[in-house]
Amino acid sequence: MWWMLKPRLLFFWGIFLLVGQLYAQTEGGKRLTSLHALSFFRSRVCQTCDLVGSVGDCGCDFDTVNQATILHFFPLLTDLAQRTFFRYFKVNLNKDCPFWHEDMMCSIRDCAVVECEAHEIPPVWIERDAEGRAVRECLKESDTATDRMEMHLGAVDRKEAMVGVDAFAGWEEGDNARVWIEQEEEDQGMTYINLLRNPERFTGYAGPSARRAWNAVYENCFELSPGELEAGGHCLEKRVFYRLIAGLQSSISTHLALEYYDKAQDCWFPNTALFVEKVGKHPERIHNLYFTYLFLLRAINKAGPELLLYDYDTGNSEDDECVRSAVQNLVRTSSNTSTADQCHRAFDESGMFQPRGLTDGAEAAAEEERELHKLRQDFFVRFHNISRVMDCVGCEKCRLWGKLQILGLGTAIKIVLGRPEDRTLEGSLSFQRNEVISLINTAHQLAKSVKAVENFQKLEFDDILQWWMWMSGLAFIVVGIFLRVCLHRQEMEKISKEKKQGDRSNGRRDVGSRLTSSKKTN
What we know:
Distance between the termini: 76 Å
Largest sheet: 2 strands, antiparallel
Number of strands: 4
Subcellular location: Endoplasmic reticulum membrane
InterPro entries: Ero1, ERO1-like_sf
Low-confidence stretches: 1-5, 25-32, 145-177
Subunit structure: May function both as a monomer and a homodimer.
Keywords: Disulfide bond, Electron transport, Endoplasmic reticulum, FAD, Flavoprotein, Glycoprotein, Membrane, Oxidoreductase, Redox-active center, Signal, Transmembrane, Transmembrane helix, Transport
Mean pLDDT: 79
Oligomer: single chain
Structural class: mainly alpha
Order of helices and strands: HHHHEHEHHHEEHHHHHHHH
Number of helices: 16
Radius of gyration: 34 Å
Strand order of the largest sheet: 1-2
Strand content: under 5%
Protein name: Endoplasmic oxidoreductin-2
């Protein structure tokens, strides 16, 4: 019967398109195309929300984002993610959870992470790691000598110095500008992981451990009223923070549904029902996903000069040249009116942490400045705490991608929301290798999720059509059986009636023959 599925499917699609065309002609006399008619019916029968209008808090509509993703961003980001430079991520997956006791021995097979062999790592990276260790050892010896001198000359009480801006200086790595996540100490349990061999997908990790980690993440978000969550609400900064985290969760849920493992069939497949339940039927979750994606694209565009000058050397000259070419195409667009350029400029950060001008007087303005400074610090601390929660994720592979994407999101925040004083004397930002790797890979994961939203909507629509096809086929069978039974009953009644009529005729003939016989006898 499988060869009959496509004709039946086309038959039902044809009916839907025909009715859609008739409906379209009644809307103000405007005739729509078959594609519009199909989209109309798909939006009516699917639970996945229809992607129309603009993305919340961004000056870009869904159609523009989808078009730019398919034609421009997704191919470039996919190419970069497979290159040597972006394939390896250095991370410590063995740190203890700082908030509660978590059993990190995940018993699920797909939770485990495959570490790199020594020969896989680019030799130039190993050399630079060794140089970095030597520099850090010298700095430690210098700090020790300074501490000894202070003990003799009188130690300085630094407690008050840790209040305010300098409170987070200990989180910075080397000469890097302010970073927004808990940073790793080099070579203390850190290993290189091949991201291509450890993709983000369904592992079976769920239950109390996963819920506790996500609850801890959202406990560090700002408390917002329903009105403040809507685009145009009063506190943009708090809303942006929440939407970035919620959008990242939507992306993660999409990836789990995109590559779902079926134990019975021992295969990976896109789980449409899981996507619809976790993401598709919640409009705000899809909006948050697109918002986070556009925020990352804004960061990549804003850091374009630094990314173009970054050293992508891995020892493979041909591969490194392809990286430079792809990065150039990623951060620069051929036209200011192109869909890609619109996505680059979709998020406008100019109003973030800026006075609203709603108060009069120097004292009120100074108070507003203090409140904004406090809000920025709170923004910083909350995100830093979320980065620490990643060490509490019980699944090793989930922890890997959680740490990578939180670092990528933190790097984007540093780029987009960073202050002028966070830059170097030349006015540029400096990045560590892990920050660049995580930024591009996080953007790739988000682009993959955005692309998957429309694909899942099509899959859901196809599933509904197939369900109707099977139900219609079943209905035809039931009706056919019913008609056959009715016809059979009619035939049986007819036969029975004819038999009775025949019996009556035979009875009359028998009576007549008996009468004739009796007359002859008389």
